[in-house]
Design brief:
Length: about 525
């Protein structure tokens, strides 16, 4: 049995290990950063090798030999994963900014500031930077989203395909990405039910490493509850009955609290069931009407607030092909009664015509749009499995970047947003990383840039040696992605600079990655 004894690494020695761990993360992140970056060849535990430009995919594969260096690296990877989880992009930028912020913090401490003062300075800088980002942000219109998709995917044709698909459903509509046997990719519009609320606990998802529960090859059963599942006795008898019918995968839509979540986690640990819990989005009209519409589409019945476990029947479960991420849930197709769905749409149309208050009209319109449910299905192929996986990752990044841009607007791309608002020198380093990856001399170009002209910067697809209008060139980033990058990078660096002792397993077999 592996030993549980630990090694202790004190202050200055630990900070040296942290610095080296971050340097290793930086090398991986910078290698694939921007249009001048390349791909990483990643060896998985089994199966074919993966060629990837996807930041979070590459960074998640970093497991360093030295335990203290590895802890620091994994903490930075958490910032990258948080970017991916919340906005789907900026994963590489978050890791790069964390590295530069850490070095900046060490310089400040060398000047005489103590670590807590520096932590406060980093937090203040982040607040000032995000406020400045908001001031230079512009709303998204027209072909802007195509530029966002192109930058996120690194391919103009791919960017055009994604933006065209989203135009069919609206930029905040649902998107499903699937494999298909063959080369290339194409999109189509299909029916479904989409809402902006994802899983409540990543450890209960089908695949925690990819931050999603995906059931697109076949349908999964869906338990829809208007009753708050607070205790083990609320949820366990229902799950036992479902498991007894032979079911091993389940989606639960509703409020499931800590004790009930613990019961689900224990059942998963025993291998009885994987039950992904999806929260209820804040919707006009109230959660009960939302759940009723969801039940109608999936062919299920809502478990009522006053019901007990004895009232549950297997026939109450809905069904559908489902993709659950950290922020969204997409149900593909309609297993419910088509005539009943049509009748409800007619009823909503009549209520909408009679409604006079704008809030009532908006609530009815939202219900109608969800029930009409148009989704974009993007099928991704490839000549090899490696090519297909790499392309699928880029499509996913681009889709989420476009959705983030539609929600929160755009800022100058090419590192210029951070460069122009920089409250600390670290914020300017990402632009220099982009330039050096593209074979440009940062020291020759950066003196031409001006903080009061944030929309004039480097377009790496141009041969120009002078700043260009980034908006006209389509060199743009989603505002939400840049904000998320600042916040997540700052958060992890504040932790790392205040670390004063490292506690790691002496026997590495006792540590399960």
């Amino acid at each position: 049995m592996p030993s549980q004894s630990r090694n202790l690494t004190p202050g200055e020695e630990l900070q040296g290990k942290i610095a080296e761990g971050l340097r290793q993360v930086y090398l991986v992140a910078k290698a694939c950063y921007g249009p001048g970056g390349g791909v990483a060849l990643v060896e998985p535990p089994y199966g074919d090798k993966l060629a990837s430009r996807d930041g979070v995919t590459n960074l998640q594969k970093i497991h360093l030999t030295d335990p203290d260096e590895n802890m620091a690296a994994r903490i930075v990877v958490q910032a990258s994963k948080k970017n991916n989880q919340n906005v789907g992009d900026g994963t590489t930028a978050a890791a790069l900014l964390a590295y530069h912020l850490y070095n900046n913090a060490k310089q400040l401490m060398a000047q005489g500031y103590n670590r807590m003062e520096v932590a406060r300075m980093l937090e203040s800088a982040a607040l000032n930077a995000t406020a400045a980002i908001d001031k230079i942000s512009k709303p998204t219109t027209g072909d802007v989203l195509a530029h966002v998709a192109t930058i996120a995917s690194g391919d103009e044709a791919l960017g055009d395909l994604i933006s065209d698909a989203l135009k069919q459903i609206g930029p905040t509509g649902g998107v499903v990405i699937e494999d298909f046997a063959g080369a290339g990719l194409f999109s189509e519009t299909i029916e479904g039910f989409y809402f902006q609320k994802g899983f409540t606990n990543v450890n209960l998802t089908r695949d925690p490493s990819s931050l999603e529960s995906r059931y697109t090859d076949s349908s999964v059963l869906i338990f829809i509850t208007d009753k708050v599942m607070a205790t083990s006795s609320d949820i366990a008898p229902i799950i036992d009955k479902i498991v007894g019918s032979g079911v091993r995968d389940l989606i639960i839509v509703g409020e499931v609290l800590d004790e009930a979540l613990g019961a689900l986690a224990l059942m998963r640990l025993k291998g009885e069931i994987t039950a992904t819990v999806v929260g209820i989005p804040p919707v006009l009209g109230g959660k009960s009407l939302f759940l009723d519409d969801l039940a109608l589409v999936t062919g299920g019945t809502v478990f009522a607030p006053g019901a007990t476990a004895r009232d549950f029947e297997l026939e109450m479960l809905g069904e559908g092909k489902v993709v659950v991420t950290a922020t969204t849930t997409t149900i593909v197709g309609r297993e419910g009664d088509g005539e009943a769905i049509t009748e409800r749409l007619h009823s909503l149309d009549k209520q909408l015509a009679d409604a006079t208050h704008h809030i009532d009209r908006e609530a009815l319109s939202q219900r109608r749009d969800r029930l009409l449910g148009k989704l974009a299905l993007i099928r991704v192929g490839g000549s090899t499995d490696v090519e297909q996986k790499e392309l699928k990752l880029r499509v996913d990044d681009a889709v989420r970047a476009v959705q983030a841009a539609a929600r929160g607007g755009i800022v100058p791309g090419g590192g210029m947003a951070l460069y122009s608002v920089a409250p600390l020198p670290a914020y300017r380093e990402l632009l220099k990383d982009l330039l050096s990856n593209a074979g440009r001399n940062p020291e020759a170009f950066t003196p031409l840039l001006k903080a009061d002209k944030p929309w004039y910067g480097v377009d790496l697809s141009s041969d120009s040696q002078k700043p260009l209008d980034l908006f006209k060139s389509g060199v743009i980033d989603p505002t939400l992605v840049v904000r998320e990058t600042i916040q997540n990078a700052t958060s992890v660096v504040k932790i790392l600079i205040t670390a004063n002792v490292g506690i790691t397993y002496a026997d590495r077999e006792a540590r399960r990655e």
